[in-house]
Amino acid sequence: MSAGICIMNKNAIALAADSAVTIGQHLAIHNSANKLFALSKVAPIGVIIYSNAELMGVPMELIIKQYKSELRNKVFPNLSDYVTDFLKFLILKSDLFHFPTNEKSYVTNVYVDLLNGLNGDYQLSIKRKINEVKRDLIAEELQEIQVETVKATLMFVDQLAVIPNLELHDYIKDTYGGEIRQYISAHFPWIGEPLLTELVEKICFVYNKDFMRNGYVGLAFAGYGENNIFPQMLHLHISGIANNIIRYTTIENVAITEEQMSAIIPLAQTDVMQTFLFGINDSFINGIGEELPRQIQSGVNSIDDTFFAENKKQSVQQELSRITSNVINQIVQKAQQQYLLPITQSVATLPIEELALLAESMINITSLRRKVALDNNIGTVGGPIDVAIISKCDGFIWLKRKHYFDRAYNPQYFYSHYMLSESEDINNGE
To answer: Looking at the predicted structure, is the pLDDT value of residue 66 above 50?
Structure first.
């Protein structure tokens, strides 16, 4: 788990990230991870990583530094060209990073993740039915739940958005279809034909679709291409590589323009930063959107049938749901006008130093929340905060950066990485 942020105006970009990393099944937390990097030695480009620190079993820090080394002095016209080149690099160096070796593990993680969701829905449906009938379920009731659960999963896959220019279905089916069938038969023996065959087919289609619930690598590239006068940020989720094809989705592509003069993009654990910016966060809004319709349906169903005809209840529910949706939209709009707009207007004119301070402060308040709140996220944001500023003229500048070594004992690092001569002050090399 982690927290990062990108703040931009016409003058510069401020990037900040914490250092907490959660490891293992026992959720050990270490505050020493590197999540913010310069992508190039010469171009004003930075990148923040979050969520999963590894891609296909390889640390992202290693991959990014290897890319930086091989990029050398090469520059591109636009920020998007750097991102495209980075994705090409992953394929060209797939053997170096042993991606093909780890493909099976990646493919397995995806379909197991989906099937775990199916099992969770199945168990929840059983509990709800038992609470409803106040007894153990008979075989016919259990079978009905089983069929409904599988069909719900099939419908879920159908509704997933397709990732453009991604064709993995046939390869997954030919290479792993038998393995997927065996797994389902072993863990879900109650799924029989023809649903089993249909489920295997749908799972193979998942790899063409936007399904990255767990284990994705979040990457936020920010900076300038040679032809960019104002900064840009391109935000991706990469879930893995199969058959030398990268499975990723573009989350955001934000560019500062004459019309959009500032942008604040929280990354990873965004709830605290969203609350600061909007006065409310997505989790709370989604909770309202889920709970209100349930309360409306329960309330309408509880009304005595003599109050209005049974066939009118559905109409009343639909109208109340429409009103609820409008109210939620109005809440969001008011939050944007009353809370977010004044901040973004201020950010548009902030000097570089204040941009950096704001970025660091946003990570600090998230860390403070995670430190004092006794919830499942306690301690998952913390440690030293790395802060960098990127500008068109000055390039990538570290304002705060942790090192696991003492600078004074390792001058060769700065000589080799920043091309300093022996006569130059090491302190100027950062």
So the answer is: yes
